[in-house]
Amino acid sequence: MALPPVLQGLSVPVIGSPMFIISNPKLVLAQCTSGIVGSFPALNARPQAKLEDWLKEITEGLAAWEAAHPGRAAAPYAVNQIVHRSNDRLTHDLALCVKYRVPIVITSLGAREDVNEAVHSYGGIVLHDVITNSFARKAIEKGADGIIAVAAGAGGHAGKISPFALLQEIREWFGGPIALSGAIATGRAVLAAQICGADLAYIGSAFIATEEANAAPGYKQAIVEGSAEDIVYSSLFTGVHGNYLKPSIIAAGMDPDNLAEGIAANMNFSTQAKAWKDIWGAGQGIGAVKSVTSAAEMVARLAREYRLARNEAAL
User: Fold this and answer.
1) pTM flag (> 0.85)
2) Are 180 and 196 in contact (CB under 8 A)?
3) What percentage of the chain carries pLDDT values higher than 90?
4) CB of 202 within 8 A of CB of 148?
């Protein structure tokens, strides 16, 4: 099945994933004007009134860029909405997405028909992130247009299933758009994701080490200096399993090789170090990141590597 028009024509088939705290209008604009989908979590805009300011900034920024670059359309942007009923901002934030006709809405933590219908009302599309095949089925049954398969190795709240298995199972029954998340930080890995059955790659951790990202300098440097061996998978910090940078755990005074697990452990977790702010999320692909660069330079590297990999595959 062909991709929806909004996902066609990218400089490289990549969605910059929405990262809590990290993603902001500056990063989104840099990603979109470089030719990939940029995104941010609605909850990053705090207080909630700030979300409209961000949507205005992105909308006007993209329009200004396109006016200054005739014939070169920017890529679309996406807003991530936590649709679980515990999100008391959802009604407010979704209404703003409708008002600004956000091209792509990424939904997380539950599939909601009413949310999908609201986005479809103005012609937007919904991509729902999942960690299992059964969650993917539920999302499509409730009207999502596509799936983001969050496989093992992804940053933050990652799944445990191999990307090979997860993609294969979803592709057996679903012919629509699928983006793959999990340790993707090179153009070669983007092509590999497509060969395995995905349409796009979903990349987050590599963009932490960009000038536009809202991350502390030490966080960015830890991405540059880190490798897959520096990623710790634990449920301690939020009660849900996720991938985190070992140096940040050590800095918080804990032994990354001896972390307690489970809900009880999370309830006893010290509030001195906060998840995401002090305990830094990252995926297993960070070994490919060698320096802090602009987002445009990151996208250009991905595009060069992707083209080279495609040429090599055609030989």
Assistant:
1) yes
2) yes
3) 88
4) yes
